[in-house]
Write a structure and sequence with these properties.
- With about 250 residues, the chain is an alpha/beta fold.
- About 45% of the residues lie in helices and about 15% in strands.
- It has one domain (about 5-235): 3-Layer(aba) Sandwich (Rossmann fold), CATH 3.40.50.720.
- It contains nine helices and nine strands.
- The strands form two sheets. Strands 3-2-1-4-5-6-9 form a seven-stranded parallel β-sheet, with helices on both faces. It has a two-stranded parallel sheet with strand order 7-8.
- Helix 1 (about 15-25) packs across helix 9 (about 215-225), helix 3 (about 65-80) runs parallel beside helix 4 and helix 4 (about 105-130) packs parallel to helix 6.
Length: about 250
Amino acid sequence: MANKNPQVIVTGASSGIGRATAIELAKQGYDVHLIGRNQERLARVQQETTFGDVVSYPYQLELTDKAAVKKTFDQIIKQFGPIAGLVNSAGIFSVTDVTNYDDPTWSKIMNVNFFGTLYPTLALLPQLYAQGFGSVVNITSVDAFDGIQDYSAYSASKGAVTSLTKTLAIESAKHNVRVNAIVPGVTDTEMTHDRIQENLAKYQAKVPLGRAAQANEVAKPIVFLVSDGATYITGQNVHVNGGWRLA
């Protein structure tokens, strides 16, 4: 099937940074394939990202189900390929008790944040390699670099994504496929809003720009990394954090 518009897949597209990225991609003329777990939210995002000659397509999918991910991505590739890019935005954020050996949070967070990034990437890379171009953008966190009290599993999962990004960039370069990561700082989304409000004074003091990011402020650099404006950028961790690491 020939498509006039370039095709991009966005995971975690039903809310937060993923939703904002899908909207920004649509504004730039990309058709967006929306991956998420909440069908009702995906339908709303589909409405927000379908206008003019731009079309989006929702897929309800559990990213920790490796077989289901492969099946869905094969379907997208068969019907819509070539694919210009993949944005791995799905993730969860939760407190971890490091003294509890049986804490199930570790497995849950690693499955969603790491394997939920790995499985879509592995499903798409053969197509990107075959077509000889494409961009993968992962979402990590400043916590992968600085750590964060009580969120050891989250930090570790994002550290794993950071390392994966660098290695895949090296391995993919010979196929003209780029792999980068966006590193958000404090970003006001549904997942983080309450925590930000509870610690507002601390974050205002820590961030030189004095505020949390809005999701669309993180989405715009993601879209840049997907685009032809970034054809010589790979293996990078692009920090979008208001100067967090300068303070």
